[in-house]
Amino acid sequence: MRKLGREADMLADTHKIFFITNNDHKVKEANRILSPFGIELIKSNFIKLEIQSKSLKKIAKYAALFATKRMFKPVIVEDSGLFIKALKGFPGPFSSYVYDKLGCEGILKLMNDINDRTALFKCVVSFCQPNSKPIIFEGIVYGEISFEIRGNSGFGFDPIFIPKFGNGLTFSEMPPEDKDRLSHRGKAFRKFGEWYISNILNLK
Ligand code: ITT
Question: What is residue 14's predicted lDDT score, i.e. its pLDDT?
Fold first, then answer.
């Protein structure tokens, strides 16, 4: 609870919102995407409750509701994953675990003999205010799994994901702003930003 008191002090500005996550890359990307909307996400150490579900939406909804009820503050939770068609949607909701255990190399090995490289990334952003239901914003980027690891930037499966409309580059080979323009996270957080400035800040 002492931690919460300190974090609450950091939120003097109404445009700052707690982001419940352990992933610093997500925070960096989300803040890049939301800065044109005048919104800043502050990483919170509050524990993200992860229910067992195949649905990113359900996972993100429950986690946001759980955190808001205990923190009495508006919060954001984001759940995302890589879905590979030939692997029947694997790793999907297990992306974080699979990345830790197998990494990009492991996914490439699993797809050794597979020609259909079709895949997508999905991102679900869940925003929840005290005494309200979570509101959900989704983003999807379609693409393909590369045949080898390419590029140095980004995180997670970025070096093996080639988005449509990205000139054949992996997310790791392109500048961060290009990834944001095309990415699942960019799409979901921009939807949230639009909604927030019209519905919470009443600026539109
Ligand atoms: P939190 O739950 O603490 O927010 P996490 O990394 O565990 O962090 P998820 O459960 O949403 O987050 O797991 C999503 C995983 O999918 C993530 O760890 C990456 O391995 C992968 N992933 C998601 N978005 C990605 C992106 O933009 N680029 C590369 N990999 C991504």
Answer: 52
Query: Using a 6 Å cutoff on CB, does residue 153 contact ligand 1?
Result: no
Q: Is the CB of 157 under 6 A from ligand 1?
A: yes
DSSP calls for 86-102? GGTT-BGGGHHHHHHHH
pTM > 0.85 = yes
pLDDT tens-digit profile of 117-140? 999 999 999 999 999 999 999 999
19, two tokens:
């982001």
**Residue 81 CB–ligand 1 contact under 6 Å:** yes
79 is catalytic: yes
Name the residue of 18, 22, 23, 171 whose CB sits within 8 Å of the most ligand 1 atoms, as the mutation to test its pocket. Answer: 23
What b/e readout covers 39-49, taking b as 16+ CB neighbours within 10 angstroms?
A: bbbebbebebe
**Domains contained in the chain, CATH given:** 6-199 (3.90.950.10)
pLDDT at 23 over 90: yes
Instruction: Kindly name the residue from 79, 100, 158, 180 that is annotated as catalytic.
Output: 79
DSSP 174: S
What residues contact residue 69 under an 8 Å CB cut-off, 6+ apart? 130
Between CA 165 and CA 143 the distance in angstroms is 9
How many CB atoms within 10 Å of residue 154?
19
> Which tokens sit at 118?
């079709």
> Rounded to an integer, what distance in angstroms lies between the CA atom of residue 186 and that of residue 126?
14
